[in-house]
Each structure stands twice: as C-alpha cells, then as structure tokens.
Amino acid sequence: xxxxxxxxxxxxxxxxxxxxxxxxxxxxxxxxxxxxxxxxxxxxxxxxxxxxxxxxxxxxxxxxxxxxxxxxxxxxxxxxxxxxxxxxxxxxxxxxxxxxxxxxxxxxxxxxxxxxxxxxxxxxxxxxxxxxxxxxxxxxxxxxxxxxxxxxxxxxxxxxxxxxxxxxxxxxxxxxxxxxxxxxxxxxxxxxxxxxxxxxxxxxxxxxxxxxxxxxxxxxxxxxxxxxxxxxxxxxxxxxxxxxxxxxxxxxxxxxxxxxxxxxxxxxxx
Length: 270
Fold this sequence. Notes:
By secondary structure, the chain is of the alpha/beta class. Helix content is about 30%, strand content about 25%. It has eight helices and 14 strands. The strands form four sheets. It has a six-stranded mixed sheet with strand order 6-9-10-3-11-12, sandwiched between helices. Strands 2-1-4-5 form a four-stranded antiparallel sheet, covered by helices on one side. A hairpin with a 2-residue loop joins β7 and β8. α5 runs parallel beside α6 (about 185-200). The longest helix has 16 residues, at about 185-200. The protein is globular. The relative contact order is 0.18.
C-alpha cells in the first residue's frame, strides 16, 4: 500500500511534487516528523488526519507559509526551497484555504485578479481581465454564476469555492492544494466542487485535497495519505483502503491494531 520512495503514480513516473523527511518545530512542539509525500500530476491525493495531525502545517510548508526545519521538497524532480507564497506561485503551486480569502465587496473578476491586476496605459485593463476570467470559468465549466461582474457576497458557498479554485488555476498552476473545499456545503454545492476537483485532475494538475469528509475523499481521490500525530503513517492508491482502515490509521496510526513501522524504515511508511 505504501509507495515509499518510488514514483507515486504507480508506473514509476516521477511525482510532480514530492516531500522527503520533512520536520517542522514550533518552539518545543514538533508538528511534523520525517514526513514523505508524493503528489503526482493528473491525480487527486486526499490528505486525511484527525485534528492536530499536522495537515495544515504540512500544507503551509508546501505553500511557503512555513519553512521546514529539515527535509527537502522536490518539484519536477529538482530540489526547491519555497520560502514564501510568491516562491510557491512562481513554481505553479496555488493554495485555496478554507476561508477562501475572497473579498465580498468585490466582483468575481476583481477577486480573480486581486493583487495581480492587468494594466494598459497605466489603467486597469478591464476588458482583458474580464475575458481571462470568463475563459477560465468556462474551461472549468463553472456555469452557475449569473455574471462575472456580480459581487462575491451574492454567491452561494459552492460558487464561492468555484471562484476561489478558478482564481488559483488561471495562473498556469501545476499543483493546487484545497483545504476542506466542501466544508459546510450542502449536497448540490458539494457536487459542484467535487466535479471541479475532477476537472483539475483531468487537466493534468496535481491536486491535494484536505477533508474530514471520507465520502468526498473516496469519491474524488485517486490516492490517500494519512497523517497521525505529525507522522505520515500510510500513503497509497485509494482503492487499497476502505473507510474503516482510514479511520483506524487516523485515530491510532495503524490498521487492525497494528502500528505502522516507524519513520525511516525501508517500507517508507513513516
């Protein structure tokens, strides 16, 4: 089940993004212990774990918010140092956090270009931004918004999530990290978001989804990775898991009462 240091895609291909031996301390507290993770292109990796398992810390290490104390991140097979969100964006890594970071008082176009506005003759190039926003939403088949000029405050939860994802992918991103994308959404809105995640995969992006909803995970994820108390206890194809085994890994760090081997073993399960 665990793929260790081999290509996570299962065909020996190099993962688009991989983490090896990531440690992270906050003062005396160690949040991550020797974490390995593979994010292959064209696949959705579901990151599972109980509260306090280290999911958010790991995500922020990839996104450049936190810098690991030890370990190495590789992008397209090359070692990289991601010291800021700008560094992550330059590589093509975008993160959609649970709070979405959308400005309610701005419309869809303004939100999608917030901080990256296009200028023409020192003025905002509204036509160019509108076209780009419309093309991105269309390519993702986001068709439920009434107008790309409607305020974000008027959107439903699923529509807001769709705009946040579209904002992330319109900058030639290659990796998209989604933090609890279906939290607090109803059935219809959740369907919109899960379909959107599938389209990101179909476009060849490496997608990582963090969610407490195992039904959503099993529906959309090609691979699952489980953190327990800061350690990556298992990682492999979603078809190798069932809900009970994932819950056991999340809550005990093992399956069937068997603890996984400690970090650094030959199996790579740590």
